[in-house]
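Onboarding guide, step 5: your first structure request.
Type a short instruction followed by the sequence, for example:

Predict the 3D structure of this protein.
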Amino acid sequence: MSTANNRTVTINKTFDATIALVWEAWTQPEHLAHWWGPKGMKIDIVEHNFEAGGHWKYVMPMPDGNEFISEGTYSEITPITKIVTSADFKPMTEGVTLEIILVEKGEQTEFTFNVIHATEEYKLQQEKMGIYNGWGSAFDRLAGYLSETK
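The system replies with structure tokens like these:
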């Protein structure tokens, strides 16, 4: 069994926004719809039950008529600082855990995003598929949204 460290993709970023605003952007559907996913794509928030044990489901209609489905179940929520959820991104990635950690730094927020895979091999496959670029693009959208929303 590989260690969690060997199975984890980590992205760190500092947002030029308060921790309260970054938390809202991650936890409120009206905010999520503005930044989740690739630029130019519409996001439908189908379900967003933000509590431990609660389910979330977002659907992105694709130009070819298919749907890209993101969904999971929250397992841990520590108000304003941490979110842990299972996640499936169908049809590309399934069975990962997302860990969102926020740390207040004055008017900025340090953000750590961990994607924990079942195996090291799966993590390496996801890296080759462009996981850093995909999430990086979404977090760039989030940064832009936060600066517009302040």
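Each response can be followed by summary notes, for example: The chain has four helices and seven strands.
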